Amino acid sequence: MNILVINCGSSSLKFQLINSENEETIAKGICERIGISGSQLVYLAIGKEKTITEKPMEDHLIAVKMVLNSLTDPVNGVLKSLDEIGAVGHRLVHGGEKFNKSALITEDVISATKECNDLAPLHNPANLIGVAACLELMPETPMVGVFDTAFHQTMPEEAYLYGIPYEYYEKYKIRRYGFHGTSHAYVSKRAADFYQTEIDSARTLADLKIIVCHLGNGASITAVKNGKSIDTSMGFTPLEGLIMGTRSGDIDPAIIEFLSHKENKTIEEITAILNKKSGAVGLQGGGSSDFRDVTADYLAGKPAAVRAIKAYVYRIAKYIGAYTAAMNGVDIICFTAGIGENNSVVRSEVCKYLGYLGIKIDDIANEIIGSEAIISTIDSKVTVMSVPTDEELMIARDTKAIVGGDCGSGPQ
Ligand code: AMP
Questions:
Q1: Per-residue pLDDT averaged across 102-128, rounded?
Q2: What is the Å distance from ligand 1's center to 367 Cα?
Q3: In the predicted structure, residue 262 carries a pLDDT above the cut 80
Q4: Strand pairing partners for 87?
Q5: Minimum CA distance residue for ligand 1 atom 20
Q6: H/E element holding 322?
Q7: DSSP letter string over 196-264?
Q8: What is the pLDDT of residue 410?
Q9: Segment 274-308, tens digit of pLDDT
């Protein structure tokens, strides 16, 4: 079956057409600047020329139409008709406490997802616009929603509750939700399979303690015990936890009021600074959020980048320590996403803190870029890996399972 995976942002739409039998990508691309001037579709069918179509896209419906036209185009297309798309898998960011797994999209599922819009006002409405556009153009094709938050719904109460009056959890559902769940689920499973093949054939995901470090523009760490997320660093929103490209991660909440008085700014303005001008950018006093640049400056000894990378790495190491305690041990630590998969400097600096766990890194193996590899030595007490994430494939797998009737679905 061909599965179209859609990841709709407020002004962008990423897509991938995946053959669910051999899990190969047939075509992929992105619509950028939807609803703003200069919109374009970048489209790549595997084995064909990449095309860039610059055309106004007033809304997501037009963007989805352009994607479907490209997929069925007589020259660069890969399908004879839309009937060859067996199902559509949609990335949905926030399923609140309503979804602990992916769900076949029905009217009820759409309403339950809308009820979570408050919790992800930048993401959920955009995701749902993508769902509506696809439903309008392919009303007979089954659609599945795959939630970023679902994997973390296994966290115990002591991990997801904040130390604030309990009534705020009851009234407003203020709690840790966690994000990047699709990536953490995919990578922990891959890591466990890899471990079983390479290290110990007797052990599986069901009895391993794994820490997944998803280090991309957004970054989060998850403790996965026996295949279940038991704690994760992002919280009520994706602002909590690690220092990121432009996000602060953990701070003392009192800083918000303090800064608001000192800088004469509203709470909304301070929150925007914490989201967009903090993290590695903020620590450098401006400059790039791209870790290729920050790392190059770090290696050149530029003080601003040294400051940023040291704080970035330290925070990751601190979380690894905390999650090792939470799981009473760790078997595998894996690095994933843009920085985790490609940046050997960050991996190496993080692991320098982890000697107390008996971790030893193989510096040659750690040079790996963008591939699956064990980067620790044979005698390392904990296996450290680089595992490329593949959220689209995970969405396609869930979609296939649900459309094929392998999983239950729907709001809890
Ligand atoms: P993501 O959000 O997963 O796309 O990750 C984006 C981050 O990954 C950026 O900070 C990039 O600098 C970093 N990144 C992506 N590709 C590479 C690469 N080939 N080498 C080093 N860093 C990379």
A1: 92
A2: 15
A3: yes
A4: 3
A5: 342
A6: helix 303-327
A7: HHHT-TT--GGG-EEEEEEESSSEEEEEEETTEEEEES--SSTTSSS--SS---S--THHHHHHHHHHT
A8: 44
A9: 999 999 999 999 989 999 999 999 999 999 999 99
Å from CA of 83 to ligand 1 middle = 36
Q: For a pocket test of ligand 1, which of 180, 292, 297 has the largest count of ligand atoms closer than 8 A to its C-beta?
A: 292
217 Cβ below 6 A of ligand 1: yes
Given ligand 1 and candidates 7, 290, 339, which is best to mutate, with the most ligand atoms within 8 Å of its CB? 339
| φ, ψ of residue 287 in degrees (nearest 5) | 100, -155
Residue closest by Cα to atom 16 of ligand 1:
338
Say what the pTM is: 0.93
Per-residue confidence at 405, pLDDT binned at 50, 70, 90? low
Tell me the pLDDT tens digit for each residue of 2-44.
999 999 887 889 999 999 999 999 999 999 999 888 999 999 9
Do the Cβ atoms of 386 and 335 come closer than 8 Å? Answer: yes
In this prediction, residue 120 carries a pLDDT of 85
Q: Is 339 in the pocket of ligand 1 (CB under 6 A)?
A: yes
According to DSSP, the β-strands at 143-147 and 85-92 are parallel
Tell me the two tokens of residue 155.
Answer: 């966290």
Query: Counting atoms of ligand 1 from 1, which one is nearest the CA of 214?
Result: 3
Dist. CA 290 → ligand 1 center (Å):
7
Atom 14 (ligand 1) nearest CA: 338
Q: Which atom of ligand 1 is nearest to the CA of 370?
A: 19
Query: Do residues 4 and 89 make contact, with C-beta atoms less than 8 angstroms apart?
Result: yes
Q: Give percent of the chain with pLDDT exceeding 70.
A: 98
245 lines ligand 1 (CB under 6 A): yes
Q: Which DSSP state fits 164?
A: S
Which of 148, 231, 297, 398 does the annotation list as catalytic?
148
362 is an active site residue: no
Q: SS3 of 120, please?
A: coil
The model's pLDDT over 130-158, given as tens digits with 9 standing for 90+, comes to 999 999 999 999 999 999 999 999 999 99
